[in-house]
Amino acid sequence: MSRPTINLRDLVVLIADPSPYLSMIAHSILRGFGTNKVLEVRNSMGVVQTLSAQKIDILLCDARLPPHGGLSLTKAIRRKVDNENRMIPILVMSNDTRETTIRQARDAGANMVIAKPMSPASLYDRLAWIALTPRQFVDAPTYFGPDRRFKIEGYPGGVGRRKGDHIVDVAKEEGPSLAQDDIDNLFSAARFGKD
User: Fold this and answer.
1) 137: phi then psi, degrees, rounded to nearest 5
2) Contact partners, residue 143, CB within 8 Å, separation at least 6
3) Taking Cα atoms as reference points, which of 99, 119, 113, 117 lies closest to residue 146?
4) Is-cis flag, bond preceding 141, omega within 30?
5) How many C-beta neighbours within 10 Å does residue 174 have?
6) How does pLDDT run across 144-168, given as a tens digit for each residue?
7) Any idea where the Response regulatory domain is (predicted)?
8) Which of 27, 58, 62 is nearest to 43 (CA)?
């Protein structure tokens, strides 16, 4: 299966990381993807200054960016109503990828979390996901950012809580359920490439 192709050549990417070494790695990976406009800063003040000075297309931000952390910076970017960069794609980079960390980044308004040290494949996959499957932004009293739901498999009771949610009819069960042996055989066939 081939990867989707995205053109990063004309995008301006800002890397916000306190480590010059890790910034250099991300910078090199982005250059390898064809990105020719990569900027680097070491703290959140550098991010604020850069965002006010020029248009940035993507922000790669370390979760522990000094002085207050990348998640606080992400919240500040998302919450400021008159900020023209409010909807910028933000990827939070972290060496802590526990579920709680990912949930905190999501709730701060980050588009994605990427594990550090990052690989070219993982960065490309997340950039492609953001580019090819954009999520609507949600504006609520306690949250502004990309829709935190990646997929909708049905709403509790068939009704969503948001204005744009449509009623989802869940079909009634029909006929007998598959026996466990039949389910195991289906997965076994799929695992070994049989029809």
Assistant:
1) -90, 140
2) 107, 109
3) 113
4) no
5) 5
6) 999 987 665 555 666 666 666 666 6
7) 12-131
8) 62
Q: Which amino acid is at 191?
A: R
**Is pLDDT above 90 for 177?**
no
Query: Kindly report the CA angle at 85 between 34 and 103, in degrees rounded to 5?
Result: 85
Q: Exposed/middle/buried for 159, CB within 10 Å: 0-12, 13-18, 19+?
A: exposed
Cα-Cα-Cα-Cα torsion 162, 168, 172, 173, nearest 10 degrees, comes to -90
> pTM, whole model, 2 decimals?
0.77
Residue 178 or residue 115, greater confidence: 115
DSSP state of 55: -
DSSP letter at 195 equals -
Cα separation of 123 and 162, whole Å?
31
For β-strands 37-41 and 90-94, DSSP reports them as: unpaired
Q: With beta carbons less than 8 A apart as the criterion, state whether 91 and 74 touch.
A: no
- pLDDT tens digits for range 35-60: 999 999 999 999 999 999 999 999 99
